[in-house]
Amino acid sequence: MSKIDKRYFLFGAQITTPFIAIWALLYYGFSVWLLASLVVFFLMRCVGSVITYHRVLGHRTHIMHPVVEAICTAFGFFGSLSSPIEFCASHTNHHKFVDTEKDPHPVKYLGWKVMFPIFWNESGPDGGDIRTVVRLRRNKIAYFFHRYHWMLLPLPLLLLLISVKVFMFFYLIPLALTLWSLSLSTLNHDKNGPKDMGTLYGILTAGEHKHVWHHTNPYDTSGEGWLDTVASLIAKRNTK
């Protein structure tokens, strides 16, 4: 797969999944099943993407037990549809080249387009910081999800063997929410750089609202409010 292919793949998933999710909600109704979707969304987005992909693997803020790391990486993988290595390598370049033309997703230059992967620079999602790539290729769990990316992605389809309803509420709807939450999280910058966002934004992005602190202290979550509390419950803070 080429670099542009993967950006189109993410964009396609981002655009199509909400329509399928809305159909499922209209067809099956707004029931207690939706609560299951919200729980899975939290696991995919907050635990998988924000904490495991972004903070633990990307910035090494915490250390996870291998079993916990494998489970949480899986949540991040199936929620973001992205390899943990590519995700972190691209994000490292975001910090290195923040708000410049080399930033994978600079709000300063892209504006609202930053929400859509097809407009990102080549350093995301397929490129990125080479040192991060080398470091995470030594991580057996991250490398497993990277190496077998395309083979692993269809696994949630096995839920169809149970029922279409289970697939929709336990995967498709949470996936749609997670992909758009990821898109919203690119908007916590303006022409002056990173900015802190309000409580609602923090809920919608599952903890990406204390962005000034994050860019100033990328290896420390102690100033990120409830996100730090959740991270500390599932992982040991990295003091090195």
What's the arrangement of secondary structure elements?
Layout: H1 3-28, H2 33-59, E1 62-63, H3 66-80, H4 84-96, H5 107-110, H6 130-137, H7 140-147, H8 149-152, H9 164-184, E2 189-190, E3 193-194, H10 199-204, H11 211-216, H12 226-234, E4 236-237
Antiparallel strand pairs: 1-4, 2-3
Helix pairs in contact: 1-9, 2-3, 2-4, 2-9, 4-6
Q: How would you describe what is shown here?
A:
By secondary structure, this protein is mainly alpha-helical. It has one domain (3-237). Helices cover 61% and strands 3% of the residues. The protein has helices at residues 3-28, 33-59, 66-80, 84-96, 107-110, 130-137, 140-147, 149-152, 164-184, 199-204, 211-216, 226-234; strands spanning 62-63, 189-190, 193-194, 236-237. The strands form two sheets. It has a two-stranded antiparallel ribbon with strand order 1-4. A hairpin with a 2-residue loop joins strand 2 and strand 3 (193-194). Helix 1 (3-28) crosses helix 9 (164-184), helix 2 packs across helix 3 and helix 2 packs across helix 4. The radius of gyration is 17 Å and the shape is globular. The chain starts with a helix and ends with a strand. The model has no long low-confidence stretch (mean pLDDT 92).
Short synopsis of the structure:
The protein has twelve helices and four strands, in the order H-H-E-H-H-H-H-H-H-H-E-E-H-H-H-E. The chain has helices spanning about 5-30, 35-60, 65-80, 85-95, 105-110, 130-135, 140-145, 150, 165-185, 200-205, 210-215, 225-235; strands at about 60-65, 190, 195, 235.
Mean pLDDT: 92
- Pick out the low-confidence regions: none
Tally of helical runs: 12
Number of strands: 4
Strand content: under 5%
Q: What global shape is seen?
A: globular
Integer count of domains? 1
